[in-house]
Amino acid sequence: MLCYAILAVPAAAGVLAGVLRWRLLLAWLAVGANAAALGLGIALAVQTDQHRTVHALDGAIRADALSAFMVVVIGVISLLASVQAVRYLEAEVIAGRCEARHASLFIVLGQLFVTCMLAAVLAANLGGVWVAVEATTIATTFLVGHRRTDRALEASWKYVLICSVGIALAFLGTVFVYFAALQVPGHPTGASVLDWTSLMAASHHLNPAVMRLAMALLVLGYGTKVGLAPMHSWLPDAHSQAPAPVSALMSGVLLTVAFYALLRFKAIADGALGPSYVRVLLVIVGLASLLVAASLLLSQRDYKRMLAYHSIEHMGLIALGAAAGTTVAIAAVLLHILGHGLAKAVLFLASGEILLVEGTSEIDKVAALVARRPLLGGIFGFGLVALLGLPPFSLFVSELNMIRGEITVGLGWAAGLSLAAMAVIFAAVMAHGRHLLLGGTDTSRNPVRTPRLVTVPLLGGLAACAAIGVSAWPLQSLLYSAAHVVTR
Amino acid sequence: MIAGTELNLLELAAGVVLACAVLALWRRDLRALVAVLALQGVALAALAAVLSVHDGDAGLGAVAGVVLAAKGMVVPGLLARVVRRDPGSRESAPLLNVPASLVGAAALVVIAYLSAGRLVSAFPGPTTRLAPLGLATVLVGLFVLVTRRKAVSQIVGLILVDNGVALVAFLLTAGVPLLVELGASLDVLLVVVVLQVLATTMRDRFGHVDLDQLRELHD
Questions:
Q1: Quick check: B217 and A237 CB within 8 A?
Q2: Which chain A residue lies closest to B201 (C-alpha atoms)?
Q3: In sequence order, what are the beta bridge partners of A362?
Q4: DSSP of A253-269, one letter per residue?
């Protein structure tokens, strides 16, 4: 029942926006639906605690603690993003840049996007996960190009083409896993071959040669959607050209929903191959991502692109944490997924407001934001602090625990390299951030207030990120139950 | 175990799928590319149909019908609409010329056979033995994607990758679960629709769909 509601409520808001005439109330309706999904997700997390699972729809839907955790993450970020969508659509319609029809379409596709992500984490069948992840690409293409500028079109072309290729490779990987499962005597046949439970039960008997091929394709394929190097090149364009609420959703959760699929497959492959094979793959893509992010962040002149490259860095860190694979490390990976999602969503949403009021996405032209818009500048500044992994924000705790996990399994050298890359990124982002917020000498204009509609949710997001960093209380048991799902 | 005429038909269909991929690399006329793609879709559907007759699996027969409709007709039809707005269009300047591309394709086929060698020797069988053809099609598709610059050629590359994946899926598993297979076919259809709309919009806006001239976003 709970699972049906989680999928149906956000979808219903999208359907209503599709059939009713455009008015701003529809955007608020989406906010309400996403808030409800968050509430239901928390209820699901309570139900799935202590290794219990929830099934629905003839076993096609299956929720364990990991699914419930991801539902909560999707709920939080989509709630933040949809509040900002109200602001975005209102401004675009008033400025005449967006017809009523396109405003409705934005809500329809946005809610479809959220529903697809929820379906991906609730699907019992790994083939079903694939279909849902692929569907997110289709739902988001026109959202990326929603502003209909030349650059937005180019970005959406690159996005849909590269991600479709990636996801096709992930499908090939899934086919190989299916083939390996068919060879196991006594494995269920028919639609349930790719069910998570039956694959986990059979994982020790899967053919290693087939699973090696499968995992290489899956890491490359889902890695494309995660934004891991060397398949990351769509990410900076898509995330910087999309409207802010879409960037927040894509960067804050879509990347990690794809990573969720990798975590599941990793658990299966570890049974067949032992932990070292997938570990090597994840260390390679993780370090490559950190290297790409560090080298390209140095010369960024656009603050939205800066945030996009920062996502590549964090996905690299998550890949390294998953490579360690201990329960502590996976719990830290999950905490990082939530913390990065919150901080990145806040930053992208704040950057949308900056773009709206300043009219440019170049760092140089904005300069000295704090003097003109103290609250907005302050939010952006604290968001950067959170993202750079400074206390009290939760990313500090999760990065520390991921590094601890890496050292315990003998990946200390990789942890050292990642710290070096993080130091470079820290310096680069601090320099860009200082320039954006405090640079220049322009203090002539009077401070302008930013509307509460923007500041209240963003402050809430930052406060949540800090709160889970200081006290892991409501999350601790959920994080460990979820980590146990994929570490046995 | 599949044998006799059915096996011959399977081998023929799988061979045609790879041959079409190589042809797509050879022909630079975009209209010819679309025709090659339609032929490949039909070969893939025929392969699924033969497998469904052999296994007596009605579900797979339905999949064959969907593949024929989606990959043999609708997808090439959509591409033909993009090409028709641009008569006489050719892949003017691929990053790698045709003879070099064909040598590259030969190398990719060898790589496909080498990388699938372990799999074929672990599970010998008439259909597993053909799986490297699918892998080779995937690799040729990736090759088209990185060396061609026209929007239509890039869509062709994506569809080649996808058809290669479908060929492997049919040969190894006689189609993954029906629902997933149908989902996959429909997804591809939607992706092509999305790409077609984007290509048309770009054409109307820029007057061309040459991705070399779309270079505003870079670092």
A1: yes
A2: A153
A3: A302
A4: IIHHHHHHHHHHHHHHH
- Mutation pick from A172, A183, A207 vs chain B, by most beta carbons of B within 10 Å, is A172
Q: Which site among A61, A150, A164 would you substitute to test the B interface, given the most B Cβ atoms closer than 10 Å to its Cβ?
A: A164
Structural domain boundaries in chain B: 4-213
Name the nearest CA neighbour of A118 among A243, A27, A1, A5. A5
Residue B165 Cα, gap to closest chain A Cα (Å):
6
Contact across the interface for A142 and B194, Cβ inside 8 Å: yes
Report the distance separating Cα A126 and Cα A132, nearest Å.
10
List the structure tokens of A255.
């990347």
Question: In chain B, which residues have their Cβ closer than 8 Å to the Cβ of A155?
Answer: 217
Q: Taking the alpha carbons of A36, A42, A45, A46 in that order, is the dihedral positive or negative? A: negative
Would the CB atoms of B176 and A165 count as touching at under 8 Å?
no
Helix, strand or coil for residue B14?
helix
d(CA A262, CA A319): 10
pLDDT in tens, A290-333: 999 999 888 888 899 999 999 999 999 999 999 998 999 999 99
DSSP string, B156-176: HHHHHHHHHHHHHHHHHHSSS
Judge whether A132 and A67 are in contact, CB under 8 Å.
Answer: no
Measured in degrees and rounded to the nearest 5, phi and psi for residue A91 equal -65, -40
Of B12, B13, B20, B15, the C-alpha closest to B140 is B20
Instruction: Tell me the HSE value of A149 on the side-chain side, using a 13 A CA sphere.
Output: 13
CB contact under 8 A, A168 and B162: yes
Contact B165/A175 with Cβ under 8 angstroms? yes
Q: Does B12 reach chain A within 8 Å, measured CB to CB?
A: no
- Going B17 to A220 to A277 to A71, the CA torsion angle's sign is negative
Q: HSE on the CB side for B164, CA within 13 Å?
A: 31
Chain A: give the shortest CA distance to residue B119, in Å.
Answer: 6
Residue A45 CA neighbour count, 13 Å, CB half:
24
Residue A190's contacts (CB-CB under 8 Å, 6 or more residues apart) are: B177
Tell me the three-class secondary structure of B74-129, residue by residue: HHHHHHHHHHHCCCCCECCCCCCCHHHHHHHHHHHHHHHHHHCHHHHHHCCCCCHH
pTM of the model: 0.93
Could you tell me if A120 lies within 8 Å of chain B, comparing CB atoms? no
pLDDT tens-digit series, residues A187-229: 777 778 888 988 998 999 999 989 999 999 999 999 999 999 8
